[in-house]
Amino acid sequence: MDKAPSADKSPPSSPDFEELSRNLTLLLEGAGKATAAYLKPIAEGQSRSGFAEEAAEAVRSFGHIAESWMTDPQRAFEAQSRLGSQFLDLWSSTLKRANGETAVPVAEPEAKDNRFKDPEWSDNPIFDFLKQAYLITSRWAEDLVDQAEGVDDHTRHKAQFYLRQLSSALSPSNFLLTNPELLRETLQKNGANLVRGMEMLAEDIEAGGGELKIRQSDPTRFKVGVNMATTPGKVIFRNDLMELIQYAPSTDKVLKRPLLIVPPWINKFYILDLNPEKSFIRWAVSQGLTVFCISWVNPGPEHADKDFESYMREGIFAALDAIEASTGEKKVTAIGYCVGGTLLAATMAYMAAKKDKRIDSATFFTAQVDFTYAGDLKVFVDKDRVSALEASMKRRGYLEGSHMANAFNMLRPNDLIWSYVVNNYMKGQAPFPFDLLYWNSDSTRMPAANHAFYLRNCYLDNRLTKGEMELGGVTLDLKKVKVPIFNLATKEDHIAPARSVFLGSKSFGGPVEFVLAGSGHIAGVVNPVGKPKYQYWTGGPVEGELEAWIAKANETTGTWWPHWFSWIEKQAPRRVPAREPGGGKLQPLCDAPGTYVLAKS
């Protein structure tokens, strides 16, 4: 590339065709680099991702829906007629606008749909037609899937999911020639935006090892241990699976009973310690809790045989032993987040069977124990697909972090995929430096044995709440878990749906404080006291359906954090002098956040 495209000029009244021509040449050069980055793994003989398998699964799902409609020609004709009628209405409306008349829209986007916010989507009859035609067609297709007869629930769910991916991808907002904002931007910048976008596309394909790894934040603005995960503390214990961090006290007195946090191994623990303002960990320390947090290893081939039992013994049990050595306390209160909560619940059922009472109470953050209503992630789980994934993981020893990251992004394709495609690669704008999305892209791998156990026992067979899951030769029964439970769900969770968490709350044998927070899987949890958003609901016993519980619940504005701490403090209010990490019995190994969290996938 001879020189960078000029992007700082004031936009001319009409395109500078000489500069536009030069930028088109640079665009083709950038496209060549992106193509080379994509083809490099193939040339080196590396296997590609499972995109072809996903496409085949989508086609099979749509085939079952089509077959349902083909078997009833009358219903199929009526469905086609409905679509044709709506397009006739749209054409009539467009002709009225062309003649200067006012016309009521046939289809309008939802209020939260940001794809069509630019005024030209409504003011320009051509773009208005494209927008409405897209909305009519995509909604009609959704109705076909929803109303198909003789289709089992899993197949329908898969078809709904893949249709959402397809309709999101085909939105006119994603294409240069059908998006008025992109056209305007390109003409004003003489194509310089496309050149910058192609440069970022090539960089992101190269960063993904031949697959597109969409940047959702500016990675140069964040560094773990420097401006993220900065709560003071020490790593006091380390083994093959985890480092245990003990955080330094910030009060003279602390609650006698320590707190152990069990984060998910699908993501890194510092979602609870993003920065001083958002850090749940720092806030918990400031309330007088002695906080310990597990930081899981980012596994490699050597961890292939580490299974759920390994994570229980070398994770939670090893942490409990280290906490006792550091503080002298045998009993703790524990938090399990997401899949860390599933592990914690299974561990507590094992401990109940063994009369092990070291965990005195437990809190679950958006964690599932019953997977009946596990949401869109169940789309990726059936017997054939799990078997294929197991075979793939066996060859490598682990599941690549990008696999789960892509799955999570597909849960909200408009927000987490296509908005960045448009902004990054077409507008040529670097994404805003957002700490939460930086953490989201800092993915981790998963050991083959552990992930296979989790998929089969939880998502596929739902064995934990059925009393059929086994760990260490013990059949687990959650009804034997009698300690107090604080179970937090979030209202808009796509990963651990509130309905699923609510149902799981009925599986424990002791008292359950169910709390529903506003927002989703992350923002509903990371809702700091200093800048609270959303709200939370508290109510009576976990009975009936979630909707009925919400109707009777008390809504409180702000964060649920103080409510949780009050629940904790009432159980064990005694305070003792503050404890320093290690307590003189364990030699601190390094400063928090440790070394395991720094490993990249």
Q: What secondary-structure arrangement, pairings included, does this model have?
A:
Layout: H1 17-43, H2 51-70, H3 73-98, H4 120-123, H5 125-147, H6 153-169, H7 180-188, H8 192-207, E1 233-238, E2 242-247, E3 253-255, E4 259-262, H9 280-286, E5 291-296, H10 308-327, E6 332-337, H11 339-353, E7 359-365, H12 383-396, E8 398-399, H13 401-410, H14 413-426, H15 435-441, E9 446-447, H16 448-460, H17 463-466, E10 470-471, E11 474-475, E12 485-490, H18 498-505, E13 512-517, E14 535-538, H19 546-552, E15 554-557, H20 561-571, E16 575-577, E17 590-591
Structural account:
This protein is α/β, with parallel strands linked by helices. It is 45% helix and 12% strand. It contains 20 helices and 17 strands. The protein has helices at 17-43, 51-70, 73-98, 120-123, 125-147, 153-169, 180-188, 192-207, 280-286, 308-327, 339-353, 383-396, 401-410, 413-426, 435-441, 448-460, 463-466, 498-505, 546-552, 561-571; strands at residues 233-238, 242-247, 253-255, 259-262, 291-296, 332-337, 359-365, 398-399, 446-447, 470-471, 474-475, 485-490, 512-517, 535-538, 554-557, 575-577, 590-591. The strands form four sheets. It has an eleven-stranded mixed sheet with strand order 15-14-13-12-7-6-4-5-2-1-17, sandwiched between helices. Strand 12, helix 18 (498-505) and strand 13 form a beta-alpha-beta unit. Helix 3 packs antiparallel against helix 5 and helix 8 (192-207) crosses helix 14. The longest helix has 27 residues, at 17-43. The radius of gyration is 27 Å and the shape is globular. It starts with 16 loop residues before the first helix and ends in a 10-residue tail after the last strand.
